[in-house]
Amino acid sequence: MSEIPAKATESEDPSDRARAEAAGGSAMAAAPDGPSDGVSDDATNGASGGAAGGATGDASAGTPALATSGTSVEVPVEAPLEPLAEAAGDVVWQSSPPGSMYDYIKVASFSIGADGLVDQWSLRAEQLFGISAERAVGMDPIEAFVAADRREFGQRKMAEILDGREWTGVVPFRLPPSDGGDEGAEGLAEVYVMPTTTEDGERAAVCIVVDVRTLRRIETDLAASQAIFGQSPFGFLLIDTDLRVRRANQRFASVFGGDVDGHRGRTVHDYLPRSEAERVAATLRRVLETGDSITDMHVSGFVPGSEERRHWSVNLYRVHSGSGRPIGIAWLGTDITSRRAAAREAAAARRNLALLNEAGARIGNSLDLETTARELLDVVVPGFCDLATVDLYQGLLAGDETPPGFADGSAELRRVAFASAVSDAPFVGGPAPVAVGAVHHFPFNSTCADALRTARPQHVPAEEGGLIQSTLAVPMVAHDTVVGLAQFSRTKGSEPFGDRDRSLAVELAARAAVCIDNARLYRREHERALILQRSLLPPGDPEASGLDIACRYLPGNAATEVGGDWFDVIELPGHRTALVVGDVMGRGLRAAVAMGELRTAVRTLALLDLEPAEVLSALDEIARGLGTPGGVQQATRAARQPRDADLSEVYLATCVYAVYDSVTRRITFANAGHLPPVLVEPGETALMLDVPPGMPLGVGGEPFEEVEVELPEGALLALYTDGLVESRDHPLDEGLQAFVGALTDPSRPLEDVCDHVLNTLDTHHGEDDIALLMARVQGLPADSVGDWTLPREPRSVGRAREYARTQLTAWDLEPLVDTAELLVSELVTNALRYGEGEIRLRLLLDRTLVCEVWDAGLVQPRRRRARDTDEGGRGLQLVGLLSAAWGSRRTPRGKTVWFELPLPDAGTTLTDPAEALLSLF
Fold this sequence. Notes:
This protein is an alpha+beta fold. Strands 15-14-13-18-17-16 form a 6-stranded antiparallel β-sheet. Strands 4-3-7-6-5 form a 5-stranded antiparallel β-sheet. Strands 9-8-12-11-10 form a 5-stranded antiparallel β-sheet, sandwiched between helices. The N terminus is likely disordered. It is elongated, with a radius of gyration of 58 Å. The protein has 22 helices and 33 strands.
């Protein structure tokens, strides 16, 4: 039987290995005289390998077979063919370089003996059908591969073939079941059957089989490849292993000119500038050597007839033959020139947006004019410009009001900020630059003055030979008011300012201007509130009878606004002193005004000589009325009606009110939600007094409790606000412990103790106002007090005058004897006539002389003006004329009427009693 040997190759592909094991090479033979139908009745062939030998064409099986007598078997090979060193007769053995059409087309051969059974099975047949030669030899091909309904037709054709007829056609086949019983796969094959004869002269056949599915796939792939390559809207190149163009599509040729064939053989140096071509060539070599694809490689160059630089995005990947051999590189290029321009525009827009976002986050965080100007320059240098300055109107910085509108461009300005990304670079050439903090003005006809007048940005011409290339003068406008001028400059080598840059500069300047104007308004309000607040605090160093007083007040910084902290020291009758510390919740002018109203109310209530709890109760009613136009009564009625709370009109405050009696050294506390007082007794550690904290002022509805404490001589008492002991970094408990720990040596001078406390604690946070009031107890000596009890009888008046004369003489106060006798006589007489119970007379000597007359009557004396014909009613008038002050107050057991006389050495002039008596008539 004839054998169709395969071409020998040096490849590891199974088909190539099969060819390598075949008998030496391809055989081509032709008979000049043969039958016209191409069918040979006889053929000669070499010795075959036998039925059990396996694949046809094995080199060990014998010599290659030669087709004669008109039978021609043509095996396609790649051109050109290189002749081998040997030739035999009319048969020439040839080989070709690796790779041929058989790498893609599945072609197999087998032979059929005279009995119609397979007697030879090639390696290609093994690969195509997946059946080994041992199993295939001896099979009936009709029974094994043809479906049952087609076997009769197949048997007839097999008989015709064995009768010597050639046959070709497309045959559906089904592989025989496997050894495990699984059904075989189905397929479609084109079969070419050539009759032949065996050595014994019996008829046989050689079958050439081609997998039709592979052919159809190749046809589809070729059509798809042609469509992609020829119809692609992108530039497509096929570059060979020598880095030369083997094929270009029409799109590429339309860009670079010429026809498609005209680009064959060119290299990248024919299209790109030298440096770019070298880079691309190196990339091509790397892709060819490594097989790594390149995605989105950007290439730039020029196209014929245009001076515009074009940009392309190129994808590169290595192309292989069917056997896996690299045959070149595919180049797919897309013009991205417009996309890059759009990307640059988008990048510029993103940069501008990012700059605006940064400006919004960084500008205006401090409510300070100079800091806000510096924040603007921190944003724009060097991201937007190389140099920048900010000038603000001097009048605005000084607190003057500027009417809305356009300001005078030549008015005085102060340079508040300067920034430069260029070391020691002047802002403009010519005159020396303006120093930060200096006051200057622009000439009336200058560009900067024009920008200020018109409130429109202006481009400042660059100086010849200077460093600056482009400058923008942008007015800073806030609420229709020009507050200053910002100048942005770029040095030579930078891109000049464009329209987009101008718009961005205006937006940045406007944002900074609003923040600067807000800071200016806040500074004005803060200064006014601070002036108001300081005017409401006690002036100078307060003085009190029986107490050594020291106080400190630290306002919050400009960022936290003015608070409502206050303290007060109020002198009460009987050498008593009221100590007050309070804190209005909230900040700003409202808090300062509310603090002033409450402080005034406290002083008024204190002069009524009410008990501490009564003072706080009345103060609570006043606080509730602060947020209501109708006052306390309207607030009380509104509280009974359901309504939505308007928190902006609610005034809340904390307050501690204490009354100290220097005679008894006892102090009575009442607390309205304030921090507890701290007491340091001599030789003891500091402790916080347990004073019940009531509800804050303005809440209402709850009574306040009083706590009375006896203070030893030399004890130290501290009242304070929460700003001293609380901040964001230090919680309240920690601050209270630190405050108590700072009061370790109360014997030091009181001013030194205050300074030590402020230096020890965190008092520089500026988050809140700080008020500190400290008092050291110095009770009245026993010899400075005269106290007598008088029976309720007329003789007590004379006895009272005698007691007063004796005591004043003992105190060396003879100039006061006559006046004191007269006034004591009047008060004791009134107590006898209008009072009840026994009478008590007390004289107190400290910075003034105080006389008190006590009785059990509840009726308060009322001063009235007596008519000329009245015999009485002039006693209290006389007391008012001769004393520095007089009054009455309620006590738990009645009332006390008192008067006060200044000491002779106090620099005051005493009223002559005789003249006072005559003035009454």
